[in-house]
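Quick one, probably user error.
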C-alpha cells in the first residue's frame, strides 16, 4: 500500500514562506523556487528542514545555513531549527519552479 503524504501544517507552510525570502546570493533566486528545500517538519516548535545544495562543494553553504536557520526561527511558534543536508535525491534543474527557470533564462 502506498504511503500517503502528510498535508503540511500552517506552521510548516509559514516556515516555507519564510524560506522563500532566503536568496541564493550567487543566483538571486530564493531557496524554495530553486527547489533546494525538500521538506519542512515541525514538532512541538522544533523545525527540521531537509534540503540540498546545487553542488556538493557549494562555497556558500555556511551562509545559507545561517540564513535558513534565522528565517525559520523568525516564524512565531518555532523554537529551534535543525537542517538535514542531503545529497539524495540529487538536485537538478527539473526541481526549479517555472519562475526560477524564467528568471535564469532557462528554456525547456
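Nope, works fine. Designed sequence:
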Amino acid at each position: 500500500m502506498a504511503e500517503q503524504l502528510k498535508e503540511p501544517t500552517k506552521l510548516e507552510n509559514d516556515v516555507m514562506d519564510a524560506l522563500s525570502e532566503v536568496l541564493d546570493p550567487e543566483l538571486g533566486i530564493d531557496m524554495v523556487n530553486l527547489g533546494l528545500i525538500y521538506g519542512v517538519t515541525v514538532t512541538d516548535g522544533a523545525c527540521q528542514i531537509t534540503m540540498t545544495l546545487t553542488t556538493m562543494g557549494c562555497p556558500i553553504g555556511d551562509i545559507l545555513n545561517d540564513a535558513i536557520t534565522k528565517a525559520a526561527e523568525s516564524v512565531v511558534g518555532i523554537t529551534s531549527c535543525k537542517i538535514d543536508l542531503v545529497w539524495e535525491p540529487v538536485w537538478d534543474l527539473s526541481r526549479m519552479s517555472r519562475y526560477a527557470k524564467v528568471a535564469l533564462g532557462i528554456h525547456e
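The longest helix spans residues 61-73.
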